[in-house]
Amino acid sequence: MAPSTIRKSFGTVKDQTSIGIAKVVSNMAPELEVALVKAMSHDDDPANEKYIREILNLTSYSRGYVNACVAVVSKRLGKTRDWIVALKALMLIHRLLNEGDPLFQEEILYATRRGTRLLNMSDFRDEAHSSSWDHSAFVRTYSMYLCQRLELMLFDRKGGSAAGGGGSGGSVHGEIDRYGARDDFRSPPPRPYEYNDYGDYRGESGHGGYGMTRRTRSFGDMSEAVGRDGREERRVVTPLREMKPERIFGKMAHLHRLLDRFLSCRPTGLAKNSRMILIALYPIVRESFQLYADICEVLAVLLDKFFDMEYPDCVKALMLMLAQLSRSMS
């Protein structure tokens, strides 16, 4: 029997064992844990859309399901040494950040602040496949990309860029409200991410439907959120033009770091031809268009405010513009 066949058989046995344990031992949400295991299985195929939808549906019920989901995914990421499982877990997190209940974004933030190694994959190394260094590198850079998005959410939450404390995440909901009210902006409001042309990768079986939503919550096209006490809250996002210069500089710095993380996600070596990695890369590339638009938005506001700012702020704005110019030319 070929080593690859043995490896696949061993992975299938491990998945079935995990499913059996979840059905018997899980106290909180056995059906959720089973769906999570199936969505993060060892087989070299994207997760079936049915399991993703089931997870999205279950985590919309209560905070307990959200907590259980974060705990299971965190445990899976912490234990696995298989790049396929790790990549599927990150793709699931990405999908939940885009489409999941606002409580999920909140719980991710709290889990990160508690020190949970949910997205800290800096030391990840695949031990289940041969010639998998390039695949492991992509897993590490992908996790750093998602981590930087959470950093941006936390920045907006701390800065109180919306009434009641939230801009792109003025409350604990991170980016849910980010750029939700753009009537004061120069350009028209961005369209919500629409990943509904995944047919090239998904095929007829329904696998790999990451990003098939018509309306996502990743970069904040919502103005309503649910608080920790379960009550619905409405956030009024502060227009970018009304922010103080230091706040705009801080946002620009985070956007630049997110851009750097995006650029580092470019697969190399054998990873460039991996179907799983290309599928994972697709929503990242789609999001990069909005990221570039956001950077241009900030630059336009800084340009309009330039002659009204204090001299030190003018210097900072000029340095940001020069930095962006050098990035564009490199």
Automatic annotation (TrEMBL):
<feature type="domain" description="ENTH">
    <location>
        <begin position="24"/>
        <end position="160"/>
    </location>
</feature>
<dbReference type="InterPro" id="IPR013809">
    <property type="entry name" value="ENTH"/>
</dbReference>
<dbReference type="Pfam" id="PF07651">
    <property type="entry name" value="ANTH"/>
</dbReference>
<dbReference type="InterPro" id="IPR048050">
    <property type="entry name" value="ANTH_N_plant"/>
</dbReference>
<dbReference type="GO" id="GO:0005545">
    <property type="term" value="F:1-phosphatidylinositol binding"/>
</dbReference>
<dbReference type="GO" id="GO:0032050">
    <property type="term" value="F:clathrin heavy chain binding"/>
</dbReference>
<dbReference type="InterPro" id="IPR014712">
    <property type="entry name" value="ANTH_dom_sf"/>
</dbReference>
<dbReference type="GO" id="GO:0005546">
    <property type="term" value="F:phosphatidylinositol-4,5-bisphosphate binding"/>
</dbReference>
<dbReference type="InterPro" id="IPR008942">
    <property type="entry name" value="ENTH_VHS"/>
</dbReference>
<keyword id="KW-0472">Membrane</keyword>
<protein>
    <recommendedName>
        <fullName>ENTH domain-containing protein</fullName>
    </recommendedName>
</protein>
<keyword id="KW-0968">Cytoplasmic vesicle</keyword>
<dbReference type="GO" id="GO:0005905">
    <property type="term" value="C:clathrin-coated pit"/>
</dbReference>
<keyword id="KW-0254">Endocytosis</keyword>
<dbReference type="GO" id="GO:0030136">
    <property type="term" value="C:clathrin-coated vesicle"/>
</dbReference>
<dbReference type="GO" id="GO:0048268">
    <property type="term" value="P:clathrin coat assembly"/>
</dbReference>
<dbReference type="GO" id="GO:0005794">
    <property type="term" value="C:Golgi apparatus"/>
</dbReference>
<dbReference type="InterPro" id="IPR011417">
    <property type="entry name" value="ANTH_dom"/>
</dbReference>
<dbReference type="InterPro" id="IPR045192">
    <property type="entry name" value="AP180-like"/>
</dbReference>
<dbReference type="GO" id="GO:0072583">
    <property type="term" value="P:clathrin-dependent endocytosis"/>
</dbReference>
<dbReference type="GO" id="GO:0006900">
    <property type="term" value="P:vesicle budding from membrane"/>
</dbReference>
<keyword id="KW-0168">Coated pit</keyword>
<dbReference type="GO" id="GO:0000149">
    <property type="term" value="F:SNARE binding"/>
</dbReference>
<keyword id="KW-0333">Golgi apparatus</keyword>
